[in-house]
Hints:
This protein is an alpha+beta fold and 57 residues long. The radius of gyration is 12 Å and the shape is globular. The chain has helices spanning 28-36, 50-55, and strands at 11-14, 19-22. The mean pLDDT is 78.
Amino acid sequence: MAANCEECVYYDYDEEADxxxxxxxxxxxxxxxxxxxxxxxxxxxxxxxDYETARRQ
Length: 57
């Protein structure tokens, strides 16, 4: 699994936080594994289209 967040379809800009964040909704168990760093790669990574990737730059 890939871990390049900048190419991921779930990596969106949050205007309130003025930062890019992952917009994938995680359940309690998934969030716990994420916070512990138990995943060596993001299991939710999905490559965005070239247009979506370019839009973030």
